Structure formats: structure tokens, C-alpha cells
């Protein structure tokens, strides 16, 4: 089986899962923490070299305060859980704002090794695609503003496969440069309902794709 070197993860559907389970929307995020750890261990087991988790975006911080507090807390907990594993962690996002958790500041300058190191794990925290591309304005049509060639996410490699939970068929601004040739697989179930089968279904599907990188 051909295993992708770098997998991007969009863990969507936390709020919808909460509503379906008769919970307040903000209570869905905490149920998405353990699935992240499970998926990390599957990537580690199968020899994936790098995995990137889409934490939250600049736009997400427009949500109600209780939801914002809940997803920031879940992201911090997710990062801290992996500090107990063998991996190398990098956090990428707009850190000079109160919407960025101070607990994660040690991870933004360079990749931090834990245990024996090995698999690279990236978290996008308070991330914006316009900020990443160094656009003069966060939301604008490409071509109307100059782009600084210094990519904010330059230490993250090109993704081979992106897996999105929650049924949505969109990238939502997820690493526009690194996703340029990625195959895109959608899981219809919500992220808190993550199952090992989701991961292997995606890997088996990827194995059957014709990867030419435009050639």
C-alpha cells in the first residue's frame, strides 16, 4: 500500500455532533481531542512522515465567546497530549494577538522535539490563508495585491492527502500552497465520531489514485 508522506487533517463537525447529541455547541470540541491522538498514532504506525491538523482560523474567532474559549482549550490540550509522544511539533498561526493561546508560543519559532522525535506534527492555530501568503489585505482577490514570497508556513511541506471529516467538500483556506497537488478525501461522519476505519479507508483510496503532480 502506498502511504502518503504528509497528511492534512480537517477535523470538522464538532458543533454539529454536539447538537445531534443534545449538547451545547461548545461542548463538542472537547470530544475531538482524543480522536486527534488516535489518528496521530495511526499515522505513526503506518510510517507517515508528517501530519498537519487544522486547529482554528482567524475567522473561527468570530464565533460566540463560549465556543471560542472551548476550541482554543481543545487545541491547547491536543498539542500538550502530543508532547508526551515521540514527535516533532510546530505551531503556525498569527501569534501576536489575544486570540492565540500563550501556552503554545514556545512552538512557533521552530519545531520542538519530544521523546525520540520522528514524525513531524503541525498545528494551525489562529491561522489565516491571507496572513500565510503575506497578502497586504487578509481577504482579497489574488492578483490585486502584491504577495510577499516569504511564506509564513514555509516549514511545512507539500501535502499528499487531505482528509476532511464532517461531510463538507471545501478546503476552507487550508494551507493553499501546500495543498496545491493534494488528493482530497471526505469522511461524512463528524470528527468526534472518528473511527480507525476512516483513516484506513482514506489511505486505501489514496493508494488507488493516479499521482502525476501535473506531469
What does this structure look like?
This protein is an alpha/beta fold. It has a single domain (6-207), classed as 3-Layer(aba) Sandwich (Undecaprenyl pyrophosphate synthetase), CATH 3.40.1180.10. The chain contains 5 helices and 7 strands; from the N terminus they run βααβαβββαββα. A 7-stranded mixed beta sheet has the order 4-3-5-2-1-6-7. The radius of gyration is 17 Å and the shape is globular.
Summarize the structure.
The protein is built from five helices and seven strands; from the N terminus they run βααβαβββαββα. By secondary structure, it is an alpha/beta fold.
Strand-helix topology:
Blueprint lengths: L5 E6 L2 H7 L12 H13 L4 E8 L7 H18 L4 E6 L19 E3 L5 E8 L1 H4 L28 E5 L17 E5 L8 H12 L8
Parallel strand pairs: 1-2, 1-6, 2-5, 3-5, 6-7
Antiparallel strand pairs: 3-4
> What share of the residues does DSSP label as strand, in percent?
15-25%
User: Within the CATH hierarchy, at the fold level, what is the topology?
Assistant: Undecaprenyl pyrophosphate synthetase
Major beta-sheet overview: 7 strands, mixed
Q: Helical element count?
A: 5
Q: Average pLDDT across residues?
A: 93
Number of DSSP strand runs: 7
SSE class:
alpha/beta
What integer value in Å does the Rg equal? 17 Å
Question: Could you state the CATH homologous superfamily?
Answer: Decaprenyl diphosphate synthase-like
Q: Helices and strands, in N-to-C order?
A: EHHEHEEEHEEH
Low-confidence segments, given as residue ranges, are 138-147
Enumerate the strands of the largest sheet in spatial order, edge to edge or round the barrel: 4-3-5-2-1-6-7
- Alpha carbon gap, first and last residue: 22 Å
Binned, the helix content reads 25-40%
CATH architecture term: 3-Layer(aba) Sandwich
Number of domains: 1
Main CATH class: Alpha Beta
Outline type: globular
Amino acid at each position: 500500500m502506498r502511504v502518503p508522506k504528509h497528511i492534512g487533517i480537517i477535523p470538522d463537525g464538532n458543533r454539529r455532533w454536539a447538537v445531534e447529541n443534545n449538547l451545547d455547541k461548545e461542548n463538542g470540541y472537547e470530544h475531538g481531542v482524543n480522536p486527534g491522538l488516535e489518528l496521530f498514532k495511526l499515522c505513526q504506525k503506518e510510517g507517515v512522515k508528517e501530519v498537519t491538523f487544522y486547529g482554528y482560523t482567524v475567522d473561527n474567532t468570530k464565533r460566540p465567546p463560549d465556543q471560542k474559549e472551548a476550541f482554543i482549550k481543545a487545541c491547547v490540550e491536543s498539542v500538550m497530549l502530543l508532547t508526551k509522544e515521540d514527535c516533532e511539533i510546530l505551531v503556525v498561526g498569527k501569534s501576536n494577538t489575544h486570540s492565540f493561546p500563550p501556552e503554545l508560543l514556545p512552538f512557533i519559532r521552530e519545531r520542538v522535539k519530544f521523546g525520540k522525535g520522528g514524525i513531524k506534527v503541525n498545528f494551525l492555530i489562529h491561522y489565516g490563508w491571507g496572513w500565510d501568503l503575506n497578502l497586504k489585505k487578509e481577504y482579497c482577490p489574488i492578483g490585486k495585491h502584491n504577495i510577499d514570497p516569504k511564506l509564513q508556513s514555509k516549514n511545512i511541506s507539500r501535502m499528499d492527502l487531505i482528509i476532511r471529516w464532517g461531510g463538507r467538500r471545501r478546503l476552507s483556506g487550508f494551507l493553499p500552497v501546500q495543498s496545491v497537488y493534494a488528493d482530497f478525501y471526505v469522511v461524512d461522519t463528524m470528527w468526534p465520531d472518528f473511527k480507525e476505519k476512516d483513516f484506513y479507508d482514506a489511505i486505501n483510496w489514496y493508494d488507488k489514485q493516479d499521482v502525476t503532480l501535473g506531469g
